[in-house]
Specification:
Shape: globular
Number of helices: 12
Strand content: 15-25%
Number of strands: 16
CATH architecture of the largest domain: 3-Layer(aba) Sandwich
Radius of gyration: 20 Å
Number of domains: 2
Order of helices and strands: HEHHEEEEEEHHEHEHEHEEEHHEHEHE
CATH class of the largest domain: Alpha Beta
Helix content: 25-40%
CATH topology of the largest domain: Rossmann fold
Structural class: alpha/beta
Largest sheet: 8 strands, mixed
Length: 339
C-alpha cells in the first residue's frame, strides 16, 4: 500500500468522477463497507470532528445550503471531509439531484498530503440505503417475503437493490404521491426482478401485512403509523418523520445508527424534547448489534424500528474504497498537486 501511495503522490491528486463511481462500487461492496465501519465504531477507532457537522444556510434570494462533515478512520487509515451544497427555495429542491454539490476530499493522515477528490453522488445514494438495510441481518425476520416501499425515488430504488441482495421476496408493494411514478416503478422492477411489484394507492395498503416496510420519502409530515405494523414487522425509517413519533415507544425495539447524529436533526431532537421518545427507550445503536454487544431480534413477533440519518464515517470509507478501486483499475483523472 505504501508503494502504491508513493506512486499516487508522484502523479498528484486523483479525481474520481460520478460516471466512473457507478462501475467501481456495487451494492454488495456498499453493504460490506457499511458493516465494517459499524465495527470500527464499536472498536472506538472512529474520530469525528468537533463540532460533528457545520452548516451554512443562506436565504436572501440565494436559498443556498452548505453541509460540511469530517472524520478520521484510524483502521484504514484515512481522513476525509465531506462537502455538500444544495438549493432549496421551497419550490425547487436539488437535494437528490446530480446538480447538487457532493464531494469528499481525502488526505493521507500520516503526511497531510492530498490524495483524492471523489464525487459521492452514487456512493452517498447507495450508502443511505445500505447503512440501514445491513441492520436487517440482525433485526428483520430471516424469512421475510413481503416488502412494502413508501417512496419510489432514488432512495426507494436503492433500498430495493440492497434488500434484494439479502432477501428473496414473493411480493413487493410500493406507493408514492403521484400515480404515474408508482406505476412506472412497479412496471420497471417487476421486469428486472421477476417478482410482482404492485403499485398501491395508499401508504396503509403498503405497510399493513408487510414483513419489512421502508419509509424513504421527502415528506415533512408523518407518513406511516404504528398500528399498521403487524407482529414481526421491521420498519426502516430513512427520513424525517416516516413513522409517527407517537408510536415509537410502542414498538419492541428501536435502533438507530447514531443517537448523537440523530440529535443534530431538528425533527428528531424536537421529538425527544417534547417527551415522545428518550435515550432510555432506545434499544441500541447498529454498531452494538453488528459487534455482538447487543442481541438482535429475539422473538418472531417483535416489531422493530430501524431509523438512520447517515454517518460521515461510512461516506469517507466508501470514498476511500472508490479511490483505491480507481487506482487499481487505472481510472480517474489526475490533477496537479501544489507540490
Amino acid at each position: 500500500m505504501a508503494a502504491a501511495r508513493s506512486g499516487a503522490e508522484a502523479k498528484g491528486v486523483l479525481f474520481v468522477p460520478y460516471r466512473e463511481t457507478l462501475g467501481l462500487l456495487s451494492v454488495e461492496d456498499a453493504l460490506a463497507v457499511c458493516e465494517q465501519v459499524y465495527l470500527m465504531h464499536a472498536r472506538g477507532s472512529v474520530v469525528l470532528s468537533s463540532p460533528p457537522s457545520f452548516k451554512l444556510d443562506v436565504a436572501d434570494g440565494f436559498h443556498n445550503h452548505w453541509h460540511v462533515k469530517s472524520v478520521f478512520l484510524k483502521e484504514i487509515p484515512a481522513t476525509g471531509v465531506r462537502v455538500y451544497n444544495y438549493y432549496d427555495d421551497g419550490v425547487r429542491n436539488s437535494v437528490g439531484g446530480l446538480d447538487c454539490t457532493r464531494y469528499i476530499v481525502l488526505s493521507d493522515p500520516g503526511s497531510g498530503v492530498p490524495v483524492a477528490i471523489v464525487d459521492e453522488h452514487w456512493s452517498y445514494a447507495i450508502r443511505s440505503a445500505a447503512a440501514a438495510v445491513i441492520a436487517c441481518r440482525w433485526l428483520a425476520s430471516k424469512d421475510a417475503k413481503v416488502l412494502g416501499l413508501v417512496g419510489v425515488g432514488t432512495m426507494g430504488a436503492n433500498v430495493l437493490r440492497c434488500l434484494c441482495a439479502l432477501y428473496r421476496f414473493d411480493e413487493i408493494r410500493c406507493t408514492s404521491r403521484r400515480n404515474e411514478t408508482r406505476h412506472a416503478f412497479a412496471e420497471r422492477w417487476s421486469k428486472e426482478l421477476g417478482v410482482p411489484v404492485v403499485a398501491k394507492d395508499s401508504v396503509e395498503e403498503v405497510v399493513r401485512g408487510a414483513d419489512i416496510a421502508v419509509g424513504g420519502t421527502t415528506s415533512r409530515d408523518v407518513v406511516s403509523r404504528e398500528p399498521w405494523l403487524q407482529p414481526g414487522a421491521t420498519f426502516i425509517s430513512l427520513a424525517r418523520r416516516e413513522l409517527d413519533p407517537a408510536g415509537w415507544r410502542k414498538l419492541d425495539k428501536v435502533v438507530v445508527d447514531s443517537w448523537e447524529f440523530n440529535m443534530l436533526q431538528q425533527q428528531f431532537r424536537r421529538m425527544v424534547e417534547e417527551g415522545q421518545f428518550s435515550r432510555g427507550e432506545l434499544y441500541g445503536e447498529i454498531h452494538e448489534l453488528v459487534s455482538g454487544a447487543k442481541k438482535g431480534r429475539e422473538r418472531a413477533d417483535e416489531r422493530i424500528l430501524i431509523h438512520t440519518t447517515g454517518l460521515v464515517s461510512q461516506d469517507v470509507a466508501l470514498a476511500h474504497f472508490l479511490y483505491r478501486r480507481a487506482l487499481e483499475k487505472g481510472l480517474g483523472i489526475w490533477l496537479p498537486a501544489a507540490k
